[in-house]
Recover the amino acids of this structure.
């Protein structure tokens, strides 16, 4: 089975992967007590905004 993705779909997958990787790291830090929940939420929000800004610039 061969999957074919458009350039836009590939970029969307890359952005989702980038966010998922960052959240995975920050969640581990949250679990270990290296971050509190407020900082975690702030980091996730900032990462989403950064990704959205780059998307708008493209």
């Amino acid at each position: 089975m061969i999957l074919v993705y458009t350039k836009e779909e590939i970029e969307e997958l890359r952005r989702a992967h980038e966010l998922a990787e960052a959240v995975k790291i920050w969640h581990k830090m949250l679990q270990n007590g290296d971050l509190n929940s407020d900082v975690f939420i702030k980091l996730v929000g900032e990462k989403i905004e950064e990704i959205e800004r780059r998307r708008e610039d493209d």
Remarks:
- The first helix runs from residue 7 to 32.
- The mean pLDDT is 95.
